[in-house]
Amino acid sequence: MRYLFEDYTFDTERRELYRAADAVSATPQVFDLLDYLIRNRERVVSKDDLISAVWNGRIVSDAALTTRLNAARNAIGDSGERQRLIKTLPRIGFRFVGSVQEAPLRPTVAVVVGSSHEMPSRHSPPPLSIVVLPFANLSGDPTQDYFVDGITDSLTTDLSRIRGSFVIARNSAFSYKGKSIDVRQVGLELNIRYVLEGSVQRSDNRLRVNVQLVDTETANHLWAERFDKPIADLFDMQDEIVSRLANTLKTQLIEAEARRAECLPHPNSMDLYFQGIAWLNKGPTPDHLGRARAFFERALALDSKNVEALVGLGQVDAIFGGSFLCDDAAARFAAAETTLSRALSFFPDHALAHMFLGGVQICTNRAAFGIAECERALEINRNLAEAHALVGWAKIFIGRAAETEVHVQEALRLSPRDSGAYRWLHELGIAKLMLGADVEAVELLRRSLECNRNNPIVYFQLGAALVLLQKTVEASAAIQEGLTLDPKFTIRRMRRMSDHPVFRAGSKRIRDAMRTAGVPKG
Fold first, then answer.
1. Last residue in a domain, options 221, 237, 257
2. Domain count, the chain
3. pTM of the shown model
4. Which residues does residue 415 pair with via DSSP β-bridges, in sequence order?
5. CA-closest candidate to residue 479, choices 521, 450, 447
6. CATH number of residue 130's parent domain
7. Which residues touch 269 (CB under 8 Å, ≥6 apart)?
8. How far is CA 409 from CA 83, 246, 354, 439, in A?
9. Lesser CB count within 10 Å: N end or C end of the chain?
């Protein structure tokens, strides 16, 4: 069996432990200790249980056991102080508390009757399972191989940061380098659902990177992207290329998993989670959020410790409150904070949970705490573009809207085609309104709607900006479109989210303009 937790792969057949693409050294006793704890993660195991299983009942001192436990923690990036994955319960025992996914072992070779060829038998591949095949160097210059391989390596590492993903390690992926491959065969050999393949071409002063995501069962191309720009510093370019691709791929993979789950007669907890996220990505209307909530609740009914579904549920409540979609925003924020805190109690280093908790704090007059949570999320996942944008959002609440643009631009640099880019453009539009730059605000709010037309509050704030520019007919049209999406919206929902005097003055300016544009007062 292969066990997947955080960015680790624990292979019991090969007795190998990997962190992303890197092998982690572990002595036989440490490996056996981890194996026993992970296999028995649903219960607390006693000292005697461990000694019996790992040392065959031999006498082992407390000091020796502690040394081995510390070595096991070190191998998986844990510590005796934090106990993020292996928890010690004083005078009771030990328990592996990390979120674990089980993946089948590499398929065994089976001989097909009547055929001279041997083919691997296929087990059901785990969700979000992918290999990044070595990118092809089309430059005609072998000295560029290091750069091309570097993109493959870094992308493998960054994709492994996606919660719940299973990414084939570098060494296995590079066994295909320079070979003509059949993606179906690769899928069978590695027991994965997706292949990412690409090429890099450098000519004169430009660099072009082409990538495509392929379904290994059907060989259908699910998504393709091209990155084309003038050559600057190669290492900076490598970071930019990888971060953009990793962010976009996350959305594409979740959409693909959601489509698969729709066809299943008996979806499991993670299948339901993927469907919930797919609805969230459509835009924050009451209908979309309600559908997402239903999937997350069904996922939790099947597995109450599905951390991803917990985070999704917290995100739904946070969006309801933060997007002015309900009359009980305070209760929504409180529910979101409770749910996200529970998720973090199961998994303290969950980047998205920290980020959404930060968003709740930003919207409940605790911007400094919210910024700290977003910065913690970025420590865990440096490519989390949304966290950069949320810091920019927080700056509006503390009277520093002029700084918002820097943070939003960083989010767009990391993920220019992100499914959440409409939110970032919206945030920047509000910052411009706060600064009195109404022409720029209108442009940004319209760009936000071009990215996603299912965000009611943007229509209302666009109407306000148009009124401020004395474009009353256009303002009225925008308000009507917003009310079509959310007929119950009233200005009363726009509760105070900050006591900062600069924010309060700017917020009043927007609300007054919304009244003039025809938004119901409530």
1. 257
2. 4
3. 0.68
4. none
5. 521
6. 3.40.50.10610
7. 299, 300, 302, 303, 306, 309
8. 37, 18, 21, 19
9. C
